[in-house]
Write a structure and sequence with these properties.
The chain is an all-alpha fold. It has two domains: about 30 residues, no CATH class; about 60 residues. It is built from five helices and no strands. Pfam families: AzlD (PF05437).
Length: about 100
């Protein structure tokens, strides 16, 4: 009985996440919508990371601000989101020495 409940809960969680991926793949959007949708990962990343930027090192807040500026520049250059995050982390790491 417990196994059936686990399978049911996993399906209830998985289906709403998987179905939109198949639906959106077949849809064609206007170019301005595609441009707006491509900005969403960077906007979400900014909303999640900004509080951390301000509190990287409480006694030296300029480390986080410089790391955030590096992330902005890398994102503006169009790098992959993972490379943007790694660049900011590396900058703060190097400034901490």
């Amino acid at each position: 009985m417990i196994i059936l409940m686990i399978i049911g809960m996993s399906l209830a969680t998985m289906l709403p996440r998987v179905i939109p991926a198949f639906i959106i793949e077949k849809m064609q959007f206007r170019p301005w919508i595609n441009k707006w949708l491509s900005a969403i990962p960077y906007a979400a990343l900014g909303a999640l990371i900004f509080p951390g930027i301000m509190s990287v090192k409480p006694d030296e807040p300029h480390h986080g601000i410089i790391g955030g500026l590096v992330a902005i520049v890398l994102a503006y250059l169009g790098l992959n989101v993972i490379l943007v995050v790694l660049g900011a982390i590396l900058t703060v790491f190097l400034l901490s020495f």
